[in-house]
Write a sequence for this structure.
């Protein structure tokens, strides 16, 4: 049988030599292809597991504030998965953490080229540019981060990016622009007292106490005892000249932070303003007279203190003389009766405290500060 | 008596027709067979590319797996592994090369050339297995060598194994190994154009459609397989770069000079060490890769980047991760480590180390230049890229490949002008101080006399204009009568040259006189021509003129735009004199 089949095989080979050779090549190729596929799959799996291991080590090192170790681990991870953007980003973050901004920048720019709208990449680039003082670049990257693509917790990341942009703008003295960035942020805050308080604080720094106070009030509605919000509301109300509110928020804030000298000073000043202000509603004529006399005395004392400190200017000396001349006439019955005298004395007191403030600096004690605030509110002279 | 049917005119005509039919059928069969062979060879080229692509993928994976197993997955191998592994693996490689796979030691390029020029296309399959195992062990254990030359060797061997068993003509069988080499290199570098150019430039040495088609198909098939399994992106990720200002070319010219010098240092070191180590007693041969491994390990203890092929480090350099003095240190360390690894006979290639040294030298030169001239705007990445091509031109001396290699492995065509400037200078410097190219020196050290492609490229081509002389014989038009020719003849004239509607010809003085004596002096010269002369042009190579001179006294050399205008004549004596004068005969 075997002997008989040999010539048949030979004949078959001779008749279909080309086709058989081609079939053989195809079969061999398919077999080797399958083998290589299996080998490659096994190797890829090994690569992935190695990369993952190194990456996790790197994350742990970065969390433990060991950026150099993290850099080494992330580099190892990238050796096994060199195009993994998450690893590249982490490496860039580790490089940033170790102060190697230029190296980090190279990775971040590579990532940005691949995905220009990547939120975190743009945020890191913005931080880098901000640190280097590249205002235009920082501004552009922050905006790209705010409107970029985020993998998770999108509103929170966008808020964070905008907050950082506001901080950066305030650092650059761009208060108006910072305020403009804050306004959309304020409309889109989650019900979180800390977030409202933080935005309120930034509004204050941007010179917008009205919106700041609204944010602090919002925070206090969510968490009535939030110390930051109470302190912020005190400051905002003070900036707005709403002294009853200053006293109200300030006292609550002091209950939480009794050692805060700043708060105490503001509250005491506000109390003095409320106690000294002769223009408050529903005061009797006698009370108005008494208040004008107290304001006059505080201003004169401040003027005396200022004049004693250095050689007084002719203006200051003249004002001092006029004040001393007027003082004997300011008796309670006269002040109660004579509206002109009351107003003249009050105006002179305000002018005196303004002049003393200009010549000798702002007063530190609550009473003269209160008079100065009254002078600021009345807005004459100056 | 009946007439013989086989005699007479009809029978002769029938016989002639039968012969003609046989000849025609035979010619058609031959043509069909040639066409079938051409087509089959193209198909074979594709299969060779596919098989070689698979083999190269397996080699790359084997190297990486061995690296993980032997020196770990960290870029910074731990002590004492960093020293022990290359040394002990080196010993194993030495023993394998000495006792099991002796042919794995030699260069893949020269093995392919041997197959083409000496062994009728045959490469022993054992050498392929040997190269695979030993080069994977060497590179995987950290020896400073690359996988490209082994890929080329393995490709040529696989191709020889596949194609050598099929019944092709000898020319085709010889061409099979270079097809595999192109596929191997293309798959290893992910660079089909460079691979094709390299194989044509350094192995085959000639461009023709018959060669180019199969080589391209094979290289492309190899790359397709590599893409399938390893991914399609370029070997290096490169930021978009371009030449900002033409004055920056001065900086790249400086890089060319420094790169050329670095190439010479490397070549001198490696090529002088190799024969000295080979000359040591044979019992030391297995130990030489072990000692090389020890040296590489000691260097790697301080500079681990030099271990293995070093692609990651090149990538880092391109991305500006090193300052210039670190780059310079890496370049110097790599030169030492690679020279030692290579000279010890450890199987592995020089392509990747060349790119490594080039990227580091380029980056270092770029960094230094930016320190001196801060106005230079190009980032270090550009210098690193250009440096790769520069060292490729300086060390491997394949000028065309060096340009395309950089463009292809980086996928960046914005730097072609700096690459060309720098490569050319490096090539010139390298040629000035290292006269014989790397592959020629290696083949001579291995006892082979393979043709030098650089010498072939630069061989002086003698042309007709180098040998021709002014015509001494009178030149006349075909319509002129014999009497005019006789009037122009002088004592030294042997003939007149005649140009007419049927081209150039000659009439001897004797025939002219004879015709005159017979009263035919009014005959037009065109009718009197005794011998037709095919013409040549001044720019034709002498090889074209030589066969035409067989049994002809001379050839007219005519103007290309006006065939009737004689520029000169050329004879066999003129050709021989030209060869003698240029020394070409002596070189032959």
């Amino acid at each position: 049988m075997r002997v008989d089949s040999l010539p048949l095989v030979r004949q078959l080979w001779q008749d279909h030599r080309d086709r058989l050779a081609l079939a053989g090549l195809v079969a061999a190729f398919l077999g080797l292809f399958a083998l290589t596929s299996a080998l490659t799959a096994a190797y890829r799996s090994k690569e992935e597991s190695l990369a993952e291991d190194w990456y996790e080590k790197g994350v742990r090192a970065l969390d433990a504030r060991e950026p150099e170790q993290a850099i080494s681990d992330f580099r190892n991870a990238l050796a096994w998965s060199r195009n993994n953007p998450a690893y590249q980003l982490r490496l860039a973050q580790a490089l940033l953490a170790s102060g190697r901004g230029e190296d980090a920048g190279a990775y971040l720019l590579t990532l940005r080229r691949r995905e220009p709208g990547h939120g975190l990449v743009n945020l890191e680039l913005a931080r880098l540019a901000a640190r280097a003082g590249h205002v235009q670049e920082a501004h552009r990257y922050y905006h790209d981060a705010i409107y970029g693509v985020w993998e998770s917790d999108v509103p929170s990341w966008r808020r964070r990016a905008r907050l950082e942009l506001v901080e950066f703008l305030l650092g650059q003295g761009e208060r108006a622009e910072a305020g403009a960035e804050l306004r959309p942020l304020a409309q889109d805050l989650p019900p979180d007292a800390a977030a409202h308080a933080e935005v309120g604080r930034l509004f204050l720094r941007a010179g917008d106490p009205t919106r700041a106070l609204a944010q602090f009030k919002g925070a206090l509605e969510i968490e009535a005892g939030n110390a930051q919000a109470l302190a912020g509301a005190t400051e905002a109300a003070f900036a707005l000249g709403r002294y009853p509110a200053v006293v109200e928020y300030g006292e609550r804030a002091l209950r939480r932070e009794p050692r805060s000298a700043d708060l105490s000073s503001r509250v005491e000043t506000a109390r003095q303003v409320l106690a000294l202000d002769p223009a408050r509603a529903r005061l009797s004529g006698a009370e108005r007279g008494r208040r004008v006399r107290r304001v006059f005395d505080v201003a004169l004392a401040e003027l005396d203190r200022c004049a004693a400190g250095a050689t007084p200017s002719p203006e200051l000396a003249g004002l001092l003389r006029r004040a001393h001349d007027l003082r004997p006439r300011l008796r309670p019955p006269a002040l109660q009766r004579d509206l002109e005298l009351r107003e003249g004395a009050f105006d002179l007191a305000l002018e005196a405290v303004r002049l003393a403030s200009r010549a000798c600096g702002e007063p530190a004690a609550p009473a003269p500060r209160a008079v100065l605030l009254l002078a600021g509110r009345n807005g004459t002279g100056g | 008596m009946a007439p013989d049917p086989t005699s007479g005119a009809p029978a002769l005509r029938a016989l002639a027709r039968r012969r003609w039919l046989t000849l025609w059928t035979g010619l058609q069969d031959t043509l069909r067979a040639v066409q079938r062979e051409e087509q089959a060879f193209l198909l074979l080229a594709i299969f060779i590319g596919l098989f070689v692509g698979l083999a190269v993928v397996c080699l790359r994976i084997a190297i990486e797996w061995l690296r993980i197993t032997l020196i770990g997955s960290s870029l910074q191998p731990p002590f004492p592994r960093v020293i022990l592994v290359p040394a002990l693996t080196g010993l194993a490689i030495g023993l394998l090369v000495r006792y099991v796979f002796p042919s794995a030691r030699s260069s893949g390029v020269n093995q392919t050339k041997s197959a083409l020029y000496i062994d009728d296309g045959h490469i022993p399959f054992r050498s392929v297995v040997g190269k695979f195992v030993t080069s994977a062990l060497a590179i995987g254990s950290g020896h400073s060598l690359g996988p490209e030359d082994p890929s080329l060797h393995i490709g040529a061997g696989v191709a020889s194994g596949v194609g050598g068993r099929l019944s092709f003509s000898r020319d085709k069988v010889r061409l099979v190994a270079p097809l595999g080499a192109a596929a191997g290199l293309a798959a290893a570098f992910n660079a089909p154009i460079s691979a094709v150019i390299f194989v044509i430039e350094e192995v085959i040495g000639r461009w023709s459609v018959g060669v180019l088609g199969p080589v391209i198909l094979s290289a492309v098939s190899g790359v397709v397989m590599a893409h399938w399994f390893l991914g399609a992106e370029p070997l290096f990720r490169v930021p978009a770069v371009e030449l900002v200002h033409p004055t920056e070319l001065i900086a790249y010219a400086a890089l060319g000079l420094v790169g050329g010098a670095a190439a010479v240092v490397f070549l001198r070191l490696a090529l002088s060490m190799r024969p000295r180590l080979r000359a040591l007693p044979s019992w030391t041969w297995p130990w030489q890769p072990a000692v090389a491994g020890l040296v590489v390990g000691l260097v790697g203890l301080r500079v681990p980047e030099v271990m293995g092929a070093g692609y990651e480090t090149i990538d880092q350099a391109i991305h500006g991760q090193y300052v210039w003095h670190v780059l310079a240190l890496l370049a110097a360390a790599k030169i030492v480590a690679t020279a030692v690894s290579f000279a010890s006979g450890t199987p592995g290639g020089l392509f990747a180390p060349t790119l490594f040294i080039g990227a580091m030298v380029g980056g270092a030169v770029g960094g230094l230049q930016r320190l001196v001239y801060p106005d230079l705007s190009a980032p270090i990445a550009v210098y690193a890229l250009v440096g790769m091509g520069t060292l490729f031109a300086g060390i491997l001396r394949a000028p065309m490949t060096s340009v395309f290699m950089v463009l292809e492995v980086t996928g960046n065509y914005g730097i072609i002008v700096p690459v060309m400037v720098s490569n050319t200078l490096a090539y010139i410097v390298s040629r000035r101080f290292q006269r014989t190219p790397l592959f020629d020196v290696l083949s001579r050290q291995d006892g082979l006399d393979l043709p030098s492609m650089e010498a072939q490229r630069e061989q002086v081509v003698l042309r007709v204009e180098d040998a021709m002389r002014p015509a001494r014989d009178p030149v006349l038009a075909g319509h002129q009568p014999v009497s005019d020719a006789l009037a122009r003849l002088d004592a030294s004239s042997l003939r007149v040259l005649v140009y007419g509607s049927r081209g150039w010809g000659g009439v001897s003085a004797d025939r002219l006189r004879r015709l005159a004596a017979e009263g035919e002096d009014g005959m037009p010269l065109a009718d009197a021509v005794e011998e037709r002369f095919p013409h040549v042009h001044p720019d034709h190579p002498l090889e074209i003129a030589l066969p035409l001179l067989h049994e002809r006294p001379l050839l007219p050399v005519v103007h290309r735009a006006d065939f009737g205008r004689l520029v000169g004549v050329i004879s066999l004596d003129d050709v021989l004199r030209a060869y003698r004068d240029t020394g070409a005969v002596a070189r032959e």
Summary: Chain A has 19 helices and no strands. Chain A touches chain B through 32 residues (CB under 8 Å). The mean pLDDT of chain A is 88. Residues 336 and 348 of chain A are 17 Å apart (CA to CA).
